[in-house]
């Protein structure tokens, strides 16, 4: 209780939730690295879908009618 009051005085009420979130995230990452569990990891980028095996984008030609 005393630690919470001191933290509230030092960091202020607006900063405490942010500190709690970052502390929780750090603990989760630490536990995951210790156990080798990668459930919380998310891919950084999503790869675009690959074209079908029989078609290439270079093989297709587009004809524009300029009438």
Tell me the structural class: mainly alpha
What number is the mean pLDDT?
A: 75
- Which residue ranges are poorly predicted, with pLDDT under 50 across at least 5 consecutive positions? none
What string, H for helix and E for strand, traces the elements in order? HH
Main beta-sheet strand count, sense and barrel state = none
Q: Tell me which oligomeric state these chains represent.
A: single chain
Distance between the termini: 81 Å
- What is the share of helical residues? 40-55%
How many individual β-strands? Answer: 0
Helix segment tally: 2
Taking all Cα atoms into account, the compactness measure Rg is 26 Å
β-strand amount: under 5%
What overall geometry do the principal axes of the alpha carbons give? elongated
Précis, in short:
This protein has two helices and no strands. The radius of gyration is 26 Å and the shape is elongated. The chain starts with a helix and ends in a 32-residue tail after the last helix.
Describe the structure.
The protein has a domain of 34 residues. The mean pLDDT is 75. The protein has 67 residues and is mostly helical. It is 45% helix and 0% strand. The longest helix has 20 residues.
